[in-house]
Here is the input.
Amino acid sequence: MNKSLFIIGTGTDVGKTYVSGLILKKLRESGASAAYYKAAMSGNDRRSDESLIPGDALFVRQMSG
Here is the structure.
């Protein structure tokens, strides 16, 4: 059975992304098949080719391995 975990908060810079990365890392270390999805994101960086870099998703990817 699939399960979902939602990390929510009402403010910016309160640690949602950081906590999400830690949880994902621990789930993967335990052998669970886990993934990260962020439905809405702002503050993306732009590459020289004008494509967007989703900073939060990149951070979670790097943190969780």
